[in-house]
Amino acid sequence: MSYNLLKGKKGIIFGALNEMSIAWKVAELAVEEGAEIVLTNTPVSIRMGTIDELAKKCNAEVIPADATNPKDLDELFTKSMEVLGGRVDFVLHSIGMSPNVRKGHSYDDLNYEYLKKTLDVSATSFHKVLQSAKKLDAINEWGSVVALSYAAAQRTMYEYNDMADAKAMLESIARSFGYIYGREKRVRVNTISQSPTMTTAGSGVKGFDSLIDFSERMSPLGNADAQECANFCITLFSDLTKKVTMQNLFHDGGFSSMGMSFRAMHQYNKSFKLCDDCE
Ligand SMILES: NC(=O)c1ccc[n+]([C@@H]2O[C@H](COP(=O)([O-])OP(=O)(O)OC[C@H]3O[C@@H](n4cnc5c(N)ncnc54)[C@H](O)[C@@H]3O)[C@@H](O)[C@H]2O)c1
């Protein structure tokens, strides 16, 4: 059922790789709720993934951009305003990647060139998107920018590696830029801290199945899935949340407020035998 929450609004959605992507669900729902959108991803992800299928479904143009490249971002905002016929009202930053995770470097054996890439792709790119949008005055007053984060920004999660540092920085950028963009242009900037979700980026994390199972057992409402994350994003793009800014909003079924749940305790009690190398 559509509520027409985004009727007449225009937006740019970063990060739809395939139909498992959180950005894919956000794009579909934004259009269902009345928005016109532009989709973007890196040229290689456009080739490897299935974004063209989504574009057809959403009647949207795909404009390639590497979110770490300010020139690409300037071109993206300029072209999007041409295609959509004016400034945009919302932007979704749904981007993450760690070469250290991909290549199996543990957190106490980081490759620092890879770390730079992790931070650039997964965090600084958010600053670059905001800076380019502001410079080109590409977002309407009361517009909304959302990036996707994860609870490892606050708490150590085994094997989340240098992505934890990237997410902490991402959330900080939302506050620092949110202050300036809010004060000068009334644009709001937030991050959503989403439950672990089975996507291409998510499943790259070692032990991801166990992480999903653990947080499912810990959360009173269970994990939030990609479709539910899309629902939440749409509320933040809508006019119903105009005074919400500079926040990291947990969308995790209650996980972030839990210490121990009955379901997790029950599972844990099944075996107290420690594995040899567990510390
Ligand atoms: N899946 C999860 O468990 C989970 C949980 C919390 C937060 N998140 C966050 O959600 C966001 C979306 O991830 P997802 O789970 O949908 O996975 P995904 O793999 O579908 O999306 C990640 C996207 O980032 C894009 N990307 C990578 N480098 C880029 C660059 N230089 N420029 C532009 N785009 C680039 C990829 O092409 C891909 O489309 C990420 O920020 C991720 O960290 C995911």
CATH architecture: 3-Layer(aba) Sandwich
Ligand list: nicotinamide-adenine-dinucleotide
Using the coordinates above, name the CATH class.
Alpha Beta
From the alpha carbons, calculate the radius of gyration and give it in angstroms.
19 Å
| Helix content range | 40-55%
How would you explain this protein's 3D organization?
This protein has 279 residues and is α/β, with parallel strands linked by helices. It has a single domain, classed as Rossmann fold, CATH 3.40.50.720. It is 44% helix and 14% strand. It has ten helices and seven strands. Strands 3-2-1-4-5-6-7 form a seven-stranded parallel β-sheet, sandwiched between helices. Helix 1 runs parallel beside helix 3, helix 4 runs parallel beside helix 6 and helix 6 packs parallel to helix 7. The longest helix is centred in the middle third of the chain and has 24 residues. The protein is globular. It starts with 9 loop residues before the first strand and ends in a 10-residue tail after the last helix. The site of nicotinamide-adenine-dinucleotide (NAD) has 27 residues, from helix 1 and strand 5.
Can you lay out the helices and strands and say which pair or pack?
Layout: E1 10-14, H1 22-32, E2 36-40, H2 43-48, H3 51-58, E3 61-62, H4 70-84, E4 88-93, H5 99-102, H6 112-135, E5 139-149, H7 163-185, E6 188-194, H8 208-218, H9 226-237, E7 248-251, H10 262-269
Parallel strand pairs: 1-2, 1-4, 2-3, 4-5, 5-6, 6-7
